[in-house]
Amino acid sequence: MKRFAIPASLALLLIDPASALATVKGPGEDKPLNLPSSDATRELGTTGASGGSLTRTFVGLAIVVGAIYGLYWVLKQVKKSREESAKGSGLQTEAIVPLGPNRSLHLVRAGRELVLVGVAEQGVVPIRTYTEEEAIAVGLIGDEPEEDLGTPRGPQTPPIVAFQGKIRESLEGLRARTVRG
What we know:
- By secondary structure, the chain is an alpha+beta fold.
- The chain has a domain at about 90-145 and about 160-180.
- Helices cover about 50% and strands about 20% of the residues.
- The protein is built from six helices and four strands, in the order ααααββββαα.
- The protein has helices spanning about 1-15, 15-20, 40-45, 50-85, 130-140, 160-180, and strands at about 90-100, 105-110, 115-120, 125-130.
- It has a four-stranded antiparallel β-sheet with strand order 1-2-3-4.
- Strand 3 (about 115-120) and strand 4 (about 125-130) form a beta hairpin.
- The longest helix has about 35 residues, at about 50-85.
- The chain is elongated and about 100 Å long.
């Protein structure tokens, strides 16, 4: 008997899906719904509620714009306070050489030492630490900063090009000292 129950119910479902899926009504399901008539629906739609909804829309828009501006102001203040706390006289960037997208070399002065640092997306790697005397000897920095009189003397090379040349010279010197040969 059970063997025929499943195929019979599938056949009934294909023949008359409405009666096959009908459920037994429980108590309270015979109550009629109290829905408004179509005349009442038309009357509700024609009332003067459009002015109020337009006002609510503009007030809501003003609140959202105000919240966005307030969040922008708070984030700007947080950024400003972090930048102020990060400033100090102990560390100073002497030069930056861009090597490619998201990669560069930074020469950072920490007191009387200079640290050559490689910067990439993955992190920061110290390459070499120089004392002030070593950096002067290698040519990374001069003895004393030249005074800028505001008048250029002859053709000037951009500072980044000069720094790149100094880095190249120091790398070639390092390579000559370390390559076996």
